[in-house]
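Chapter summary example.
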Amino acid sequence: MALPVIECFHSNTGAKIYRIPVEVFPEFIGFCYVILDAGVPTLIDTGSSYGNSDHHITQGIVALRTDFGEALDITDIERIIVTHGHIDHFGGVAFMCEQTGGATIGIHELDRRVLNAYEERVIVATKALHVYLERAGVSERLNMKLMEIYGFAKKHVRSVDVDFLLHEDEPLDGMQFYHVPGHCSGQVCIQLGDVLISADHILSHTTPHQAPESITQYTGLGHYLESLEKTKHIDGIRLALGGHEEPIYDLYARIEDIEASHRRKLQRVIDIVESSEEPVTISDISKKMYPDVSGYHILLALEEVGAHVEYLYNRGYLAVCNLDEVEREDNPALRYGIA
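The structure predicted for these 339 residues follows.
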């Protein structure tokens, strides 16, 4: 597929921020960023290492020299920062560490073990997802199919050492980090003066995907909405650059749009539960909210609905109605009604 062009953005701190497009999965574009004039040359995120991802990122860095006149070779990159522990952002870390000749690697502590104990995290996360899908009321056959899809793109990644951690109270060469959990446990935004690299915390068009905290701690809609509120109070942001999609020129209005989207989804869940003749599972709700999804998008829909159901249940809007079954069986589907 044709990639978007590489673009250069300037912070009022004097830093240059190059946005490099990468096909992280088939027909799905992500962005990596090369930061210059903010300490040592720094790469933000590394693509997935799947398909053409590695080629796109290395060619993008070459283009900074050939097309933009930067005196930069890939071996000049001394630091890699990973915004969060999702494979389309960290899958290429091992490859890029080799290409750069040993750049140091940093990530938030809540995602550290995604990098340095990857195999462990995959096993634990896979088990948690399987249990969640059972509890969501997904059939055994579909559960197994979704688990196969989930694991397919994770087999090519290997663990790497983490050299430093990202802390809010420890700026680094003019970069200020904000921990904004929700979409991912260790999700960070990076501020360079009037520019915010928002990664997948805030995107220009899509409402970033949510999954329930019952699968992974520090995710979940509650954490995400709190993180949006936190981001509102970062003053003076002129431009936000996401991990996907277009630049955001009004960050604060975009936050309001995302909040409104989640309010609509929460109300939609309540309406479905309220109008159902019998208590419903997360799977039942998902089929009504997202009737036309297929493949991997079925899993994304089940997680998105689960995050909203979890939020409503934790705040007393929904109740589990099959307590006898829950008490009697190991892991039955939870059936919800209005509290």
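To summarize the output: The chain has a mean pLDDT of 96.
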